[in-house]
Amino acid sequence: MITTAIAQLPAGRTVAELIENISASRLSLFHQCRLKFFFRYVAGIKKPKTGALHLGSSIHLVLKHWNKCRWKNQVPTLKSLNDVFQFSWDAEQQQAPVQWEPGEEEEQKKVGWRLLETYFRESPIPPDEKPEAVEVVVEADLSEQGLTSLVGIIDLVRQGGIITDFKTSSKTPNAEQVAHTTEIQTTAYALLYRESAGKAEAGIELHHLVKNKSPKLIVSPVGPATDAQIERLYRVIESYIHGLEQEDWVPSPGFQCMSCEFFNECRKWH
User: Fold this and answer.
1) 3-state DSSP helix/strand/coil % of the chain, to nearest 5
2) Which residues of the chain have pLDDT under 70?
3) CA 212 from centre of chain
4) What is the CATH number of domain 133-236?
5) What gap in Å lies between CA 12 and CA 35, rounded to an integer?
């Protein structure tokens, strides 16, 4: 059971709402730690936004603008992209303030822009390539599998049906590990794309903007989702639904707990 102090917190969403439609991010979090999932989505505990999340969100908004410009056959200048970055940074800070240490915000802002400059310089996407879709909201009905609806937002679909997702990282990703740790997300995107486009994706690319002293771009190509991966995703969704119906909120202690924002709440669980 959850302790009284935690149970009396204002609810975020009901179990029925969380089962009605399912996203890859919720699936991943639930199977990472069910108690963390409870704190975030059911108890609705709000935590201050971290600097890393702030930086990632600001970069994401600039890349969204860049892709939409290309979709409209427009060519943005580096200055206009920097203006969007500055605006996005300030807007994110107003919406979800980060408690920066002295000098930290300006330093992180410089890091973010260096990452974007690196991406625009090294991106494998030709500047004149018009996207098939940008930030598209998609839903797939999985009732034929005895499941519910899968929902998601795909960052970018390149010409030919290449699903592209943008990520910021503090270390260089390992291709094999990335393929494994992002499988729920990439397979979900593949199902969503097939539902929307009526055809299979040509492939999936993960574009990692790595925050080293010398920023770099690492592109991790992932092939189209296999039948085995899709079947595995169905089983993951089944486990998610069953766990929520049983209100199974057990924690998963491990090294990942050291950076968990719900560490103190978890220590009170019994």
Assistant:
1) 50, 15, 30
2) 1-11
3) 21
4) 3.90.320.10
5) 14
